[in-house]
Amino acid sequence: MSKLWQARFFTTVNQLRDLPDTQVPEIAFAGRSNAGKSTAINILCNQKGLAFASKTPGRTQHINYFSIGGAHIAQHRKDPTIVDEIECLLVDLPGYGYAEVSGSAKLHWQRLLGDYVQRRDQLAALILIMDSRRPFTDLDIQMLEWFAPTGKPIHCILTKVDKLNRNESVNALRQAKAKLDSYVDEDGEGFPFTVQLFSALKRIGIEEANDKILELAGVSDDEAAAQVELIEMEDDVEPDDKQAD
């Protein structure tokens, strides 16, 4: 059981001045609207409604934070999170690139996203979600180029790989790696960019993504596994004494 399964809603903000003053690592998820960002977050955290997928993609204008740690696995979802025990925060950034969004909203998002990914000291890494059939749009590249100068890692997740056959999947991954390898710093050194294939429908790449996210956050799954084992032992002894969620 992954520690990501402990994820709980923490806070939502619409302005940089309202960002939480926590000092734990933040792992941000960014991606074009309809790339499957919310679905990826939900399946990685094993929760159907954690990240909200709007019926009108591109309408969500807020940065949503989810905490890892600060709440034990069996805790009721309405019980308060212990802020001092949070180990890292997952950050769901607004989706970008949806045609029906007004110009003023697009400008707001551009400023919000650009300032956040370039200036947020707590941001440890960026998870860039892209549709495997249409990766590296102009806006995806803009996000890469905003973030690259920080020198921090980017892990690209190519979603909806179930829509591709085997050869197409292999080619998509190879081309993505080549694209990422083309980015180098002033000394000709490559940036810490990685990429993988992913499908929520076929459950492809979930373990790989989980392990990478926890690695980037500096979080271990050992404690979560121990808690699960303890809960299972307690269930064996007292099967009728279970807390409803």
UniProtKB/TrEMBL annotation:
One of the Pfam families matching this protein, by short name: MMR_HSR1
Residues annotated as signal peptide: none
Required co-factors: Mg(2+)
Function: Necessary for normal cell division and for the maintenance of normal septation.
Keyword Amino-acid biosynthesis among record annotations: no
Family: Belongs to the TRAFAC class TrmE-Era-EngA-EngB-Septin-like GTPase superfamily. EngB GTPase family.
Keyword line: Cell cycle, Cell division, GTP-binding, Magnesium, Metal-binding, Nucleotide-binding, Septation
Domain EngB-type G residues, every copy: 23-219
Protein name listed in UniProt: Probable GTP-binding protein EngB
InterPro entries linked to this entry: G_ENGB_dom, GTP-bd, GTP-bd_ribosome_bio_YsxC, P-loop_NTPase
